[in-house]
Prior knowledge:
By secondary structure, this protein is an all-alpha fold.
Amino acid sequence: MAGKRKADGRSWFDLEVQGSEFQDTRLRRRFASLLEKLWDGMGQTIPFACQDGASTKAAYRFLSNDRVSGNTIS
Protein backbone atom coordinates (compact mmCIF):
# COMPACT_ATOMS: atom_id res chain seq x y z
CA MET A 1 0.00 0.00 0.00
CA ALA A 2 2.83 2.42 0.76
CA GLY A 3 4.29 1.86 -2.72
CA LYS A 4 0.94 2.72 -4.32
CA ARG A 5 0.67 5.87 -2.23
CA LYS A 6 4.17 6.90 -3.31
CA ALA A 7 3.30 6.26 -6.99
CA ASP A 8 0.02 8.18 -6.69
CA GLY A 9 1.83 11.01 -4.94
CA ARG A 10 4.49 11.10 -7.63
CA SER A 11 1.92 11.46 -10.41
CA TRP A 12 0.24 14.26 -8.45
CA PHE A 13 3.61 15.87 -7.89
CA ASP A 14 4.49 15.73 -11.61
CA LEU A 15 1.11 17.19 -12.61
CA GLU A 16 1.53 20.09 -10.19
CA VAL A 17 5.01 20.94 -11.47
CA GLN A 18 4.00 20.61 -15.13
CA GLY A 19 0.89 22.72 -14.55
CA SER A 20 2.82 25.61 -13.05
CA GLU A 21 3.15 28.73 -15.16
CA PHE A 22 6.46 30.20 -14.04
CA GLN A 23 8.15 32.46 -16.57
CA ASP A 24 11.56 31.54 -15.19
CA THR A 25 12.74 27.91 -15.29
CA ARG A 26 14.71 28.48 -12.09
CA LEU A 27 11.46 29.17 -10.25
CA ARG A 28 9.95 25.97 -11.67
CA ARG A 29 12.95 23.96 -10.45
CA ARG A 30 12.79 25.62 -7.03
CA PHE A 31 9.06 24.89 -6.87
CA ALA A 32 9.68 21.21 -7.70
CA SER A 33 12.40 20.98 -5.06
CA LEU A 34 10.29 22.67 -2.40
CA LEU A 35 7.22 20.62 -3.24
CA GLU A 36 9.21 17.41 -2.91
CA LYS A 37 10.59 18.43 0.49
CA LEU A 38 7.11 19.38 1.72
CA TRP A 39 5.66 16.13 0.37
CA ASP A 40 8.33 14.05 2.12
CA GLY A 41 7.80 16.01 5.36
CA MET A 42 4.02 16.20 5.12
CA GLY A 43 2.49 17.62 8.27
CA GLN A 44 5.72 19.25 9.40
CA THR A 45 6.59 22.91 9.45
CA ILE A 46 8.73 24.32 6.64
CA PRO A 47 11.95 24.31 8.72
CA PHE A 48 11.49 20.66 9.71
CA ALA A 49 10.51 19.60 6.17
CA CYS A 50 13.50 21.43 4.67
CA GLN A 51 15.88 20.00 7.31
CA ASP A 52 18.57 22.68 7.12
CA GLY A 53 18.93 26.43 7.29
CA ALA A 54 19.86 26.97 3.65
CA SER A 55 16.87 25.00 2.32
CA THR A 56 14.55 26.73 4.77
CA LYS A 57 15.79 30.16 3.73
CA ALA A 58 15.40 29.20 0.05
CA ALA A 59 11.82 28.06 0.71
CA TYR A 60 10.84 31.31 2.39
CA ARG A 61 12.61 33.31 -0.31
CA PHE A 62 10.68 31.39 -2.99
CA LEU A 63 7.35 31.93 -1.21
CA SER A 64 7.97 35.67 -0.79
CA ASN A 65 9.06 36.15 -4.43
CA ASP A 66 6.85 38.67 -6.26
CA ARG A 67 6.76 36.39 -9.30
CA VAL A 68 5.26 33.52 -7.29
CA SER A 69 1.53 33.48 -6.66
CA GLY A 70 -1.34 31.05 -6.51
CA ASN A 71 -2.00 31.71 -10.18
CA THR A 72 1.50 30.67 -11.25
CA ILE A 73 1.43 27.51 -9.14
CA SER A 74 -1.93 26.12 -10.19
